[in-house]
Design goal:
Number of domains: 1
Order of helices and strands: EHEEHHHEHHEE
Strand order of the largest sheet: 1-4
Low-confidence stretches: 1-26, 34-53, 134-139, 245-255
Mean pLDDT: 77
Number of strands: 6
Shape: elongated
Helix content: 55-70%
Structural class: mainly alpha
Number of helices: 6
Radius of gyration: 20 Å
Distance between the termini: 53 Å
Largest sheet: 2 strands, antiparallel
Length: 255
Amino acid sequence: MLVFNQAGAQSAAGASGATQSALGGLTEQQAVLAVAGFAVLAAVVSGSGGLSSVAVPADQAAATAAASSATAAASKASEAVKSLEELVASISSTDASRASVEKDALDRAITNAKEAQAVAKSAADDLALASSVKVDGLVNKGIEICRAANTCTKAELANLSFKAANAAKNSAEAVLGAVNAANAYGLALVNAGVSLPTAFTSALNSASTSSIEAQNQANAAIKSYEDTLKALGTTGTTIAASTGTTGTTGTTGTR
């Protein structure tokens, strides 16, 4: 029997555009930070389709593409989290105490991003296994993926494709939300008179870049999920693409 990891996906705010307009009279450090703020508005609409027959290679090809993009999204999300952790470490505890509210919010956002990334990685791994035809008695950490020993039904493949794409989106948005929180933390530090080290701004820029790439890959996974449904000749739960606008507040992404 094919098996997968069950885990709850979580969604968090984030976005991908990058603009430095409307920065007004911000200081140089504030301007660097401002371009890394993100917000996103995303929606998921439910649908269903009755499926039962064994998937054909074309279906699995589309699912494999979804798995590849979902895996890449999880990898970029992991890179962003690592950069954010380096960002936090670059500030002394004394300086961090001058922006404790924003620091606490950033810590929570990083934790959420790490959890969502783990879910996304697991879902991508499950789909990668399920979309492979050359398997026999496939087992993935003790939880059932598909009932048959070496293949999945169309319904099972569609469901696993949805889980991978949706988890990739949730992970990307959680990371974008964490970047947003890091932006707010940096601005609070600057406003408190803290001179930000180069390591801080470098880590923020790296996290911002990785989060945008994670979002792009997540949207590619969503597109491949849609292609999978088309190849299966059915409909499924709709996943809205991850979108949003940049801003400078670190919470709503607008000012």
